[in-house]
Amino acid sequence: MRRSRGTRSIGGRWRRRTLTIRERRSETERVNLRPDVVKIDVEGAEEAVLEGSRRVVEEVRPALLVATHSRALQVACRDYLEAAGYKVESLSGFEHELVARPLEDRQDST
After folding, report:
1. Alpha-carbon distance 57 to 64, whole Å?
2. Domain residue extents for the chain
3. Nearest to 1 by CA among 28, 22, 15, 17
4. Are 84 and 109 in contact (CB under 8 A)?
5. What is the pLDDT along the chain (110 residues), one digit of tens a residue?
């Protein structure tokens, strides 16, 4: 996992501040961030991101939009989210985009 700190320029067009995962987690907990929707588009690291966001997925239960970059990743992400109590559907017109909404009753899988 790459760790960086400071400001980066991407192609000279824009700049952003980067944080380590530990810094981001601490910052998020400090302000009690509870997102309603999370978009994940990480070019093949979807499973790692979902695993790393386990606390948010299980406790906060936001809706998720996950861009998967292979059929195998799509299946793995779908399985993970369904096991976590989410209803998962493909986004209409975008076969590699998954939309996951938390089930009201986590025992209900329909």
Report:
1. 9
2. 1-33, 35-110
3. 22
4. no
5. 444 444 544 555 555 555 455 556 566 666 676 789 999 999 889 999 999 888 889 989 999 999 999 999 999 999 999 999 999 999 888 888 999 999 975 544 44
